[in-house]
Amino acid sequence: MSHHLNDLLEGLRTQVARMTTLVLQAVEQACEALFTADAKLAQETIVMDQRIDEEEVRVEKSAIDVLALQQPAAVDLRTVATIIKVNADFERIADCAVNIAQRVLPLSQLPNYEPPSDLKLIANTVLLTLRDTIKAFNLQDEDLAHRVLKSDDVVDALYHQIVQDTICLMETGGQEANVELGNIMIAKNLERIADHCTNIAEDVIYIHTGRIIRHLRAV
Amino acid sequence: MFLKVLEPPRVVHTLLKVVEAQRPMSRVALQPPSVSAAPRAHLPSASAITTSTPPDMVNPADVLIESRGVSVFYASHEAIKGASLSMPRNRVIAMIGPSGCGKSTFLRSINRLNDLIPGCRVSGQLFIGGQNIYEPKVDLVALRQKVGLVFQKPNPFPKSIYDNIAYGPRLQGVNRRSDLDGIVEDCLRKAALWEEVKDRLVTSALGMSGGQQQRLCIARALATRPTVLLMDEPCSALDPIATTKIEDLITELRANYTIVIVTHNMQQAARVSDLTAFFYMGSLVEYNATSAMFTNPMQKQTEDYITGRFG
Fold first, then answer.
1. Chain B residues 1-40 within an 8 A CB cutoff of chain A
2. E strand or H helix at B121, and its extent?
3. Measured between alpha carbons, how far is B6 from A217 in angstroms, rounded to an integer?
4. pLDDT at residue B269 tops 70
5. CB–CB of B117/B74 below 8 Å?
């Protein structure tokens, strides 16, 4: 590989790493805002999204430049193509954090709002999954990527449990409908974050093996 | 920061076990999909490799050129070490590899041009259309009419454009002017040159541009009605516009000819070929569909070469 291409790929990975730091921070802030009923922190998460959007555009432009000017092949090509894909996934994860923060804003104003314990559990699981995903991508750790795929099943199970519990509560007239809806929407966004983590983990495996394993698990 | 206010992470790992235990039917689905990494054995030496014809790319019924253990020696030096590969008809096959790897030697062995080099010896079998071209009874003139060769540097004869094309057919006994006119126009059209030169067919070919001269050489090769066209770095002496024209021409000619092209330009191999063979130090390291070669090569040596890590 030419030193120049090597430097460009290294620069791309650094840009993605910088973006992942912001994305993790956004999700952490959104969750903390939820569990501490902190409207200010939720607002900060929403504002922060613009920086992440700018980073996403920057990464995409750089990756397209590398494709156009360096014509990478084999593992280098897989790396650049994957960076373009995971870049979009990370940006969508940040959008999910914004969605959560927007739900937190009205909920945090309720005097007796207490997030259900399963919501804490799914948030915790998703945060761990996101951290593993970022680590797997930055360190190109294939084993860790496989563990991320596994933890998505836990998140799905938790999400369905939350939905079931909420339906039960609604049927028995437990809380206000907007609170139940808020909880479900927050859980849905957390579940979406785990889905994006799965996509990224599959892409890490693709860089390593050249095999596209997407959809194989369903089969 | 957030995790401190929530349950400790171990809860999650416990939950993972609980979820798996409660869903015995989904155990298989919970396992990470088995990803068998493509073989990436780092090859100790190039001579350890013999062949790697992609099994699903070459249908035996489509094979036009088949090399079985072909070795080429220059005196005692083994320039090609037992190369075996099958080339299907109406496909473009690119040969890549660093200088001295034997790709041009292999190309020239397909029309026995190596026979002209003193001390050169070929062993193994090379079939074209089912016939071993290294059998003693093979008519070399007829072979080279069937297997045309285009060289790196355009080499038109110092004759008119018309006579360059008509040269081969005349040797084959075609002398009627109307027949020759038809062949010249047909070949120049196939070589995408007719519109540019139809009004100056009697002028010297040496007055054409480099790109035009190379297309004239291709047209000249087509005039003897070959089935195979060999091209040895046909664009290396041309500018980008002429290169694009030749590449477009290769793509069009594929419908009627089998084309084997040697190129140092890997992007060119990626653009024009269906199959790519990578040679290194006289050995065929990998032969596979071009898309597979350039996205996910099977051999580490191939990967190192096409990503520029050596060579």
1. 1-3, 5-7, 9, 11-12, 15-16, 19, 23, 26, 29-33, 35-38
2. strand B120-128
3. 31
4. yes
5. yes
Over 80: is that where the pLDDT of B15 sits?
Answer: no
User: How many angstroms separate the CA atoms of B305 and B311, rounded?
Assistant: 6
Token pair recorded at residue B226:
């070959």
pLDDT of residue B40: 36
Whether residue B31 has pLDDT greater than 50: no
Return the sign of the alpha-carbon dihedral for residues B208, B210, B215, B219. Answer: positive
Of the partner residues B5, B33, B294, the one whose CB lies closest to the CB of residue A74: B294
Residue A70: C-alpha distances to residues A10, A21, B34, B168 (Å): 14, 28, 33, 43
For residues A184 and A162, the answer to whether their CB atoms sit within 8 Å is: yes
- Considering CB atoms only, which of B6, B15, B38 is closest to A123? B6
- DSSP annotation string for A4-47: HHHHHHHHHHHHHHHHHHHHHHHHHHHHHHHHTT-HHHHHHHHH
Q: How far apart are CA B176 and CA B168, in angstroms?
A: 14
Nearest to A189 by CA among A88, A102, A87: A102
ipTM over 0.85: no
Q: Tell whether A28 lies on the interface with B, counting CB pairs under 8 A.
A: yes
- State whether residue A205 sits within 8 Å of chain B by CB: yes
**Closest Cβ opposite residue A1 in set B30, B38, B307:** B307
A 165-194 residues with CB < 8 A to B: none
Instruction: Please identify which residue in the block is written with the tokens 């002017």.
Output: B177
Q: What is the pLDDT of residue B1?
A: 41
Which residues of chain A neighbour B23 with C-beta distances below 8 Å? 157
CA distance B43 to B49: 8
Phi, psi of A98 (to 5 degrees): -65, -45
The first and second tokens of residue B13, run together, are 């790992």
The band of B7, judged by pLDDT with boundaries at 50, 70 and 90, is very low
Q: Which of B4, B14, B18, B19 to mutate to test the interface with A (most CBs of A within 10 A)?
A: B19
Average pLDDT (A170-195) is 89
Contacts of A118 (CB under 8 A, 6+ apart): A158, A161, A162, A165, A187
**Edge-to-edge strands, sheet with B120-128:** B77-88, B63-74, B120-128, B131-132
Express each pLDDT in B245-260 by its tens digit. 899 999 999 999 999 9
pTM: 0.77
* pLDDT > 90 in chain A, percent: 79
